[in-house]
Write a structure and sequence with these properties.
Length: 686
Amino acid sequence: MTMTELYSTEEFERKYTYSGTDLGAVWTKEKTSFRLWAPTAKSVKVNLYKTGNPGVDDRIAQIEMKSAVAGTWTAEAAGDMNGVYYTFTVELEQGVHEACDPYARTTGVNGQRAMILDLRSTDPEGWEDDHDPNAGKHITDAIIYELHVRDLSSDPSSGITNRGKFLGVIEEGTHTPDGIPTGLDHIKSMGITHLHLLPSYDYGSVDEAHPERDQFNWGYDPVNYNVPEGSYATDPYHGEVRVKEMKQMIQGLHRAGISVVLDVVYNHVYEGETFCFNQIVPEYFSRTHNGHYSNGSGCGNDTASERSMVHKYIVDSVKYWADEYHIDGFRFDLVGLLDVDTINELVDSVRARHPNVIFYGEGWSMATELTKPDVAMATQRNAWQTPNFAYFSDTLRDVLRGYVFDDRAYGYVAGAQGQEELVKACFMGHPDWCPCPTQTINYASCHDNMALFDRLTMSAPDASFADRVRMNNLAAAIYMLSQGVPFLQAGEELLRSKPLPGGGFEHNSYCSPDSINSIKWNDLSKPEYAANAEYYRGLIAFRKAHPTLRLTTDEAVREQVFALEGLDANVTGFHLRGSADDPAAAIVVLYNPNKTPTTVQLPKGRWNICITDKTAGTEPLLTVEGGVSVAPISACVLTLEPVTSPLSELDLSEKKLPLLLGAAAAMTAAVGGAVAYLTRRRKKDN
Ligand code: CA
């Protein structure tokens, strides 16, 4: 039996699974305790260094570690070691390796040396009171905005001082040369609830020692999982700075009412062989067979999450980000390469302390060479096995914009025929793989593939600019109002584009320069771009105003959401029965992708039009009865006018009170006093 086969045996796991919480370097003022899991090592030493700069000969001391329980090694260093850098030297059958600590809390430049850290000293003022501003809500209440730290501020038009840095994300009062708000002020104005940051842990593809070089990378190449990326800090050399500044960013976002999601990439590492865990326990972290790395990820290696100490490592890491950095959500890259047990355990253990943290990921099925038999993977098809974990709906994405791997394929909004049933399934939050609306992330664009507007340009080359804008906004109206969790790439609202200098558009901008990746804030000076952002604001506001759009069970969807029948070809429509806490008694949502208008017969009642091809929001634009005409390539959304009978006619008996509350809540200023009265009564009754 080879060593890598042995790693995955029950016998090995019984003997060498360590369950303690003290792996890494635990700092106190009096001493620092080290514990490293290295079951195959012959000896282990801790090296203490003055600086975190790799290659610099400034070792202060070397401490021999003692063999301890379950394959771990321990040592202690007396005194206040805060700020001292360290590595481990591991003597193995395979040779002597010096490696960073897989549990490093921070590192020096480029993540080669860990740093002992008094974590409390990195807390910004008021950190103990910092919390998720959206606590108490459901995942379907989230509106997720996906951003790369650098893209927000790297274009000069952002007016942001800390360009490309964590701190740039929370600068307030920034604007374009024309005075249009940018950065955080813009994000706040959109009304989104969750800011999802592309990888912000320490990754390998950007040289932190040379910030002057114009280096960009998405960051899907993890080096240190529990350390913020140094190139986003104002000083990558002093380990405490990146920790402090990332916390400052998170606190600033929380104060702005925005929850923070981290994009985590546990499925593979920057480089399988040099990854610190594999240096310490050769080939343990990755799926390998006789030195050959499984490569389902397409990034050179796949993580062996099915092994007990990798499983623990991933669970510990996610818990650490939630506890220490107050992270409110996690987006898992290629989660189809990780096993469902690891996912369920990390979800449950994070939620035990932070019940509102949300989890979602890319659940594509991928070919990977597992090291154990009978392991179920966290894929869309297995969604029922991970009930508190959501998956990106490529079903909806491809319906809206066309098949992902063909840039010229066009989708529903650009005139693809025969898509009605798929649109209906997605609108109701259950594409065929999805058991429940809390498990589908609905979107039309993310960092991967072409920006939505670019894809429309490619796939509808004969359409006018104005028509492509209509297609864009029809797509937005579909994913934003569907049951599930809406998600958009930052800048989609201002028709973000990634044009290539030689023509065409970039569909994989992972290492493209800032000039391609950055958000071009100056575009907001053009009326049609500003109007587009305003349309998105209206869609978001409408979603937030209507709980009926944010149902949390499939049963509720079945009881409240009905597809309209007998519409023109390609047109889809829905009648939603208002939830008790919805100001609308009912909502009708109509989508017309055709180039001609369509007339739809409305259910009985007076209907307020809130969303048309040109405007979106919560305020009624017009009231109609009978039928409504939906403009070409557009959405039309109507709410049923609330009860208008004078209050004196309402029966306020205890029995009927709850039934009236929904309607009463919708009555505005004119009857404000009475509404307040009813609300108080209801609280008292409960
Ligand atoms: Ca780095």
